[in-house]
Design goal:
The protein is of the alpha/beta class and 323 residues long. The protein is 40% helix and 12% strand.
């Protein structure tokens, strides 16, 4: 945080006292990089995120390397995080697409997994090579096995607010697939605004419709992309509804390799700045988090897109010129 004691804490009525940030930079962020980040750098990134106070850090994805080569080192990376897992203060979820992915994750001791569904048929076909119903059928044994192993299961749902091929996605359609995911046995549901087209009224309408279909707010997380600059306003709408789990990516990294109009995730630093100003507890050290994103940006060879990172990072000094 800045030396001037900013932002001032000015709480707003009706907001939660605490928010759990589900950090996705190491998985959702790095999977969208054109190049492959070295395994040791990924491990250091996750350790730094944990040291900054983040308690849920999505570590990697056990998908076939052919589809996401940037995360092909999952077997090499996960053991490098044993010290974090053993502390039991930090959860390290991993994405698994199918039973084979689950087997790989369980063999390494993963205790939290996520499956990745779609609210639309076109994205399901492009991302999973299946229909929506076929993808749910694929997830059923994955979730059942995970629950039998007492592993926490998150269900991601993409294209909840709009689809680049199908356009507007009816709320009832999203609710139907969301309810199906939860009925499989998922512990929580993450609503993805994959291409960043949501607005606050749309967020409130979907959350209300989910509640009306017996999906409790306590089981819902939100995952906003900032394509149109709406991620924070949409997050605030979700908080006002009672949501206490928000996905974000350190430095604003990420997108979606299967939806080219999907730009970066909500930056964790921008989220923490807003939550700090609202007096909402996150347990995240913004100074340490910002330094982590600056460090990673140097490895990636470009500045962080996070506005808060840029605001809190002094510009490089200009070289002096001698007469």
């Amino acid at each position: 945080m800045s030396a001037q004691g900013l932002p001032m804490k000015v709480p707003a009525p009706g907001l939660p006292a605490r928010v759990r940030i589900h950090e996705v930079g190491a998985r959702d962020g790095l999977q969208n990089e054109k190049g492959t980040v070295p395994t040791e750098v990924k491990a250091e990134f996750i350790h730094r995120l944990a040291a900054a106070g983040l308690s849920t850090i999505e570590a990697t994805s056990f998908v076939h390397p052919k589809w996401v080569p940037q995360l092909a080192d999952a077997e090499a990376l996960f053991p490098l995080l044993d010290d974090i897992a053993e502390a039991r203060e930090v959860s390290l979820p991993v994405l698994v697409p199918n039973e084979r992915g689950l087997e790989r994750a369980l063999a390494l001791g993963a205790r939290s997994i996520a499956v990745f569904g779609s609210a639309t048929e076109t994205f399901a076909a492009r991302n999973l090579n299946r229909t929506v119903d076929e993808s749910l059928a694929m997830f059923e044994p994955v979730v059942a096995r995970a629950k039998a192993e007492k592993v926490h299961v998150r269900g991601y749902l993409s294209m909840c607010f709009g689809d680049p091929w199908e356009g507007a996605v009816p709320v009832a359609q999203v609710v139907k697939v969301a309810k199906a995911l939860m009925d499989l046995g998922c512990d929580e549901l993450s609503l993805g605004d994959t291409i960043g087209v949501a607005t606050p009224g749309h967020v409130r309408e979907l959350l209300t419709a989910l509640n009306d279909s017996a999906v409790p707010t306590s089981s819902i997380g939100v995952h906003f992309h900032d394509t149109y600059g709406q991620a924070l306003s949409n997050t605030l709408a979700a908080l006002q509804h009672g949501v206490t789990t928000v996905d974000a990516s350190a430095g604003g990294l990420g997108g979606c390799p299967y939806a080219k109009s999907a730009t970066g995730n909500l930056a964790t630093e921008d989220l923490v700045w807003m939550l700090n100003g609202l007096g909402i507890e996150t347990n995240v050290d913004l100074t340490a988090l910002t330094a982590t994103s600056v460090w990673l940006a140097e490895h990636l060879g470009r500045p962080s897109p996070s506005r808060t990172v840029r605001a809190l990072t002094p510009p490089p000094s200009s070289p002096s010129h001698k007469e």
